[in-house]
Amino acid sequence: MQALSEDVLTSTNTILCCLCSAQIEPNPSNMCVACLTTQVDITEGIPKQGVLYFCRGCERYLQPPSTWITAHLESRELLSLCLKKLKGLAKVNLVDAGFIWTEPHSQRIKVKLSVQKEVVNGAILQQVFVVEFTINGQFCEDCHRVEAKDFWRALVQVRQKTDHKKTFYYLEQLILKHRAHTKTNNIKNTDGGLNFYYVNRDDARKMTDFLTSHVPSRYQMSKQLISHDIHSNKYQYKFTFSVEIIPVCKDDVVCLPKKLATSKGNINPLCICYSVSQLIHVIDPFTLQIADISGTNYWHDQFQSLTTPKSLAEFMIMQIEIVADKDKPHVEPISKKHVLADVWVARMSDLSSNDQQYYTRTHLGHLLNEGDTVLGFDFNNANINNQQFEKIKQDRVPDVVIVKKVYDRSARNKKRKWKLKRMAEGIETASEERDYTAFLEDLEEDQDYRQNVNIYVDRNKLAVDTDDTDDEGVPQISLQEMLDDLRISEDATGDEGAAMME
Predict the structure, then answer these.
(1) How far is CA 39 from CA 14, 32, 128, 176, in A?
(2) 347 - beta bridge partners?
(3) At what angle do helices 430-445 and 166-178 cross, to 10 degrees?
(4) Closest CA to 171 of 232, 224, 225, 212
C-alpha cells in the first residue's frame, strides 16, 4: 500500500496539446513547444540584417550618430556595437550572444543570439536566431580632412635662428625613431624651420611636448577664431604652437654671460659647444672644464654664437705637445673624453705667402697630429658684434680657437655604408645637401650624438664594396651599431621596417 502511494506521488500528470493532441506537461498555453513556436515568433520586430560602417583610413567603426570607435574582429566592443544596432532587442530578454566565424575578407559579420520572452498565459519561450551585418566602407571626418591635405585645426611651427638645418635633420631622426609624426596631417618645409599640421589640438600639444623634451626650446600658443554659432554658443578656433629652438649648435664658439659662467663653476666665458641634447654641453678648450646648460638657464641668460660654419677657417697643425697633468689648470669638472694640448697652427691660405704661426690650446689633443687640417676661428681677423664678448679683456682673447678636425670628405663618403630614414624624399638645394652631409659627419664623429638615431645598413654599398682597407683616422660607424632595413611594407604614417626593428 505504501509503495503504491509513492508511485502515485512521483507520477506526473499530462495533458493533450490543444493543436496537435500530443501528450505534454501542463503549461499556461496548453500547447507543445513545436506548436507554440509556429503560433508565436518572439523575434518579430528584431531585424535579421544590418549595416556597419567601417573607415579604412583609421580602421574604426561608426557608432551612431557621429562617434567612431576602434573595435577588432570578434571583440566585445564590436559585439556591443552590433547589439546596439538591433532596435527591437529591448522587447526581449537577451540570454546569450556570440559571433559565428566568417571569412575576414567577406565583409560579413554574423551574430548568433538567444532570447527569451513571456508569451501566451505566462509561458516563457526561448529562440535562437542569426543576424548578419554587412560592412560598408565610409571615410570618417578626420580621414577626409587628412586626405584633403589642407585642413588643420592646430599648427606646430618649429623655428631656429641659424643659417643651417643640421638641427632639423637631427629632429627628423628623433621623430622617426619615436614615431611622433603618426598623427600629423601634413609636414611642410619653410624658411627657417618646419610646420606640422594637425586635426586635433591635443595631438599638436603632444608634438610640442616631444620637441621641448628632446631639444632645449620654448613655445608660445595662440588661437584664432574661425567660426561662432550664436544659437548653440559654440566657437571654432585654430591653434598655433610656435616652438623656438635655441640658436646654439654643435661646434659653435660661444661667449657666456658673466653671471651664467660664474654659476657654472666660474668657467671661462669663451667656450665651444661640443654637443646639444636635452642640455647644451660646453667645454673650455684651454682647461677642459665642462658645463651643462639647460634650456631654462639659456632663456634666462641668453647668448649667441660667435661663429657660423662659413666663418671658420682651415688651419694646419705645425706642432703639437700634449699638456702634462702637472701643467693642467686645477678646475672641476673636466672632460674625460678630451685631451689638452698646446699647438702651433698656420692658416692654409697663408702657407704659400708667409710662415706666420699662431699658438693656442685645444681640447682635441687625442685626435690631432702634425700635418692635420683643422677648422678654427681666427679672432684676429674677425669682426665680432657681441655685447658679452666686448666685456672680455683683450689679453684673455686667444688668437685662434680650434673647433674640429677636418677629414678627407671623399674618403668618408667612400666608407659610409649606412643610411638614414627620411620622412619625405625630395629635391634638396646645394646648401641643404651640404648641411645634410655635415649632419652625417657629426653622427660619425660623436657616438653619444648618434645614440638617439636609428642607423640602417646600406646593402647597396656593401654589395659593391671591394676595398677592405680602412683609411686611418677616418671616423666610421661599426656594423654592430647599424640596424637591418626590413622594409616589407609601408603604411601611411611611416616606415614599417623601422617599427619592426624597434
Answers:
(1) 21, 11, 16, 66
(2) 315
(3) 70
(4) 212
Give the sign of the dihedral formed by CA 6, CA 9, CA 10, CA 15: positive
Specify the DSSP element, H or E, that contains 82: helix 76-84
**Residue with cell string 556591443:** 80
**Block mean pLDDT (10 aa), the chain, length 502:** 46 75 74 71 83 88 87 89 86 88 88 83 78 89 69 90 88 91 86 87 94 94 84 86 94 94 93 92 95 94 89 94 88 91 93 87 94 93 89 90 90 86 76 88 89 88 59 79 64 39 36
Residue among 141, 210, 218 at smallest CA distance from 179: 210
The owner of cell 673636466 is 334
CA distance 306 to 302: 13
198, 153 Cβ separation under 8 angstroms:
yes
Dihedral pair phi/psi, residue 92, rounded to 5° = -125, 170
Q: Which residues pair with 31 in a beta bridge?
A: none
Based on its alpha-carbon atoms, the radius of gyration of the chain, rounded to whole angstroms, reads: 37
- DSSP for 274-304, please give it: EEESSSEEEE-TTT-BEEEE-HHHHHHS---
Say whether pTM exceeds 0.70. no
| Beta strands 270-276; 252-255: pairing state | antiparallel
Other Cβ atoms less than 10 A from the Cβ of 142: the count is 18
Residue 186 CA to residue 179 CA, distance in Å, equals: 14
Place of cell 559565428: 100
Q: Determine whether 258 is exposed, middle or buried from the number of CB atoms within 10 Å of its CB (0-12, 13-18, 19+).
A: middle
Contact yes or no for 273/250 (Cβ under 8 A): yes
